Amino acid sequence: MRIRLEDFRRMLAVSLFSIPAVAFVIFDFVFPNISTPSLEKNMLVAFLLSILFGMPAGYFLKRTDLAILTVLIYLALGYVVGIVAYSAPFIFYEFSIIFPGVYFLFFLNRTIILILIIFLGGIVGTVIGQLLRESAETEETAQWFAKP
Amino acid sequence: MGTLGEFRKHWFVTSLCILCAMIFFASLLLSSANYIRIIDAREVVVLADAQESAEELPNGSLVLGLSIEFRNPSAFSLAISSVSWAVSLDISDLGGSPYLPLANVYKGTTESLFVDPGETEVFVYETVISDAAQISKIMEFIDYSAGQGDDYTLETAPYSHDFRVTSWIGDFRHDYQYSGEFYLNDMVRLERSYSEGEYS
């Protein structure tokens, strides 16, 4: 599998569409009572949403391997943004964490299953995104050759 | 075709993606801001300015009182769910029961009392001790202390006040029943106490 610089740029750009959504769902899964709106820890809704998050990767990247890699990228970066949101009171303000190890382990413990669900949904989303792209292109071609 | 060219060509899908990303990003910021303000509330809400009082009435009864402020400089209103006040006297030196309970008040509110942001709620309690058995026990302690070199009277005896208040921050959900989710209840619950001259 060869990844050109242009491919990598596109993967990163497409990831930007999904990073905020992944970060929000992860944060919401840890604190459903303070986030607005909230999925209330509903795994099915999280899975369905994660399909939506994977669709841009499938739509804008024709190569399936790159699309799946994009899912991994936005999942990793979204998780980092989620951790930043989770740590916001301690990063941007002068509040102190009493047990940092326990604090972050707690976050990981709460979200590990969710990560797998989002990854799975993301892969399904890439397939749907690619189908959508093919469908759009077929329609575009048909319109191009249609009689006036 | 470059990435930007691809996005321009599929402008409708790109716009939808950007819109979704912005909505989720705004939600993330809002939720994170809530989290920051809750942590802030846990730091700044305090009990303060406790004033204990003891007064002997002409008929020999004793009036014990406590006035204490519950300050809420946070951004949320606080729904007070329970308040308790107890006052006792440490009589462990006399042998037998270590404490002489003098008054005990508990209020678990069904319709919560709210303390608005920036407001201070002042709790004032007073109780009259007129039970002869209790007064005589206090006098017994005072007499015993006099033998130990402590010069107490009914008004200056070392009464121990214990005040506790529990409240919920804002109107965030706090009825999680599953043990793995108790931390969500704990996060929006504030417990403050004043006991033996110390705030916590």
Give a brief outline of the structure:
The complex is a heterodimer of chains A (148) and B (200). By secondary structure, chain A is an all-alpha fold. In chain A, 78% of the residues lie in helices and 0% in strands.
Compile the SSE list and pairings.
The complex is a heterodimer of chains A (148) and B (200).
Chain A: H1 5-30, H2 43-60, H3 64-86, H4 88-91, H5 100-144
Chain B: H1 3-9, H2 11-44, E1 46-56, E2 62-72, E3 78-90, E4 99-115, E5 119-129, H3 132-147, E6 159-169, H4 182-187, E7 189-195, E8 198-199
What does this structure look like?
The complex is a heterodimer of chains A (148) and B (200). Chain A has helices at 5-30, 43-60, 64-86, 88-91, 100-144. Chain A is built from five helices and no strands. Chain A is mainly alpha-helical and 148 residues long. The longest helix of chain A is centred in the last third of the chain and has 45 residues, at 100-144. Chain B is of the alpha+beta class and 200 residues long. Chain B has helices at residues 3-9, 11-44, 132-147, 182-187; strands at 46-56, 62-72, 78-90, 99-115, 119-129, 159-169, 189-195, 198-199. Chain B has a five-stranded antiparallel beta sheet with strand order 4-3-6-7-8. A three-stranded antiparallel beta sheet of chain B has the order 1-2-5. The mean pLDDT of chain B is 88. The chains are: A mainly alpha (148), B alpha+beta (200). At the A-B interface, helix 1, helix 2 and helix 3 of A face helix 1 and helix 2 of B.
